[in-house]
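Subgroup meeting minutes
Present: P.N., E.W., G.H.
Scribe: E.W.

1. P.N. recapped why we're keeping a running log of single-chain structure predictions: easier to compare across weeks, and new members can see raw inputs and outputs side by side.
2. G.H. added today's entry (89 aa).
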Amino acid sequence: MAAYFHLNIAVPGKIVFDQDVESLVVPAQLGYLGVLAHHAPIIAKLKPGRITLRTAENKVSVFDLKADGFLEFSENKATLILDSLEIPA
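Output recorded in log:
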């Protein structure tokens, strides 16, 4: 059985994603970083690239990060704070 963690994605002025997810892959400064439930606490600076996540409903979503941002993961909760994000239609 899959384990989940909560993910919030914030851009200036709003939260664009707020759900439980199974996995998250983000473009960190030194390469792509994968996060699963119960990952060790981490703070990472992000660079432009592709963000991929799998929701608890097994749906894969892909977002294009067009500017820098940050990932914070602690206590099975992840937060992405981003300057801008291209959300697929």
